[in-house]
Amino acid sequence: MRIGHVIVPAGDLAAQVDFYTRLGLTVRFRDGDRYVALTDGTVTIGLADGSQQPVVGRTLLSVEVDDLDSCVAELAAAGASVGEPVPGPHERRSVVVDPGGVPVVVYERRA
């Protein structure tokens, strides 16, 4: 397990990329006009348009796990609210809700 990134809704991707790069972050990865990953070398922020936001309009923590199915099964058995895993362009992910009611994205990378 590791913190993958923080997903930030992007209403104006170009303007937001400009803003964050002016803060000193560098572009690590870009997926067209849908998603841009920026980093300071340690933390990654993923600017996501509506099609790439697991919970539209919400800033979300994203946690990478080795085995998504095992992880969501364990969380569900412990009583967590767990969404069905869905494929993304680069990962499989599920939105789970922590005990405080905050949605969190749990994902595994696609091979």
Mind explaining what this structure looks like?
- This protein has helices spanning 13-22, 68-77, and strands spanning 2-9, 26-31, 35-39, 44-48, 60-64, 81-82, 86-87, 91-97, 103-109.
- The protein is an alpha+beta fold.
- The protein has a single domain, classed as 2,3-Dihydroxybiphenyl 1,2-Dioxygenase, domain 1.
- Strands 1, 2, 3, 4, 5, 6, 7, 8 and 9 form a nine-stranded mixed sheet that branches.
- A hairpin with a 3-residue loop joins strand 2 (26-31) and strand 3.
- The chain is elongated, with a radius of gyration of 14 Å.
- The mean pLDDT is 93.
Topology of helices and strands:
Blueprint: E1 2-9, H1 13-22, E2 26-31, E3 35-39, E4 44-48, E5 60-64, H2 68-77, E6 81-82, E7 86-87, E8 91-97, E9 103-109
Parallel strand pairs: 1-4, 5-9
Antiparallel strand pairs: 1-5, 2-3, 3-4, 6-8, 7-8, 8-9
How much strand?
A: 35-45%
- Say how many strands there are: 9
Q: How would you state the average pLDDT, rounded? A: 93
What is the count of helical runs? 2
How would you summarize this macromolecular structure in one to three sentences?
The protein is of the alpha+beta class and 111 residues long. It has 2 helices and 9 strands, in the order βαββββαββββ. It starts with a strand and ends with a strand.
